[in-house]
Amino acid sequence: MELFKIDFFPIRLLDILDVAIVSIVFYILFQRIKDTRAKQLIIGLLILIGASYIAAWAHLKALNTLISFFSGAWLVGIVVIFAPELRHFLMHLGQWRGLGLFDRPVEQQSVEEVVTAAKMLSEKQFGALMVIARENQLGSVIDTGTLINARVSYQLLATIFTPNSPLHDLSVVIRGNQLAAANCLLPLSDSRTLDRALGSRHRAAVGITEETDAIVVVISEETRQISIAIDGRLMANLSPSELRNNLYSLLR
Question: What is the pTM of this model?
Answer without folding.
Answer: 0.63
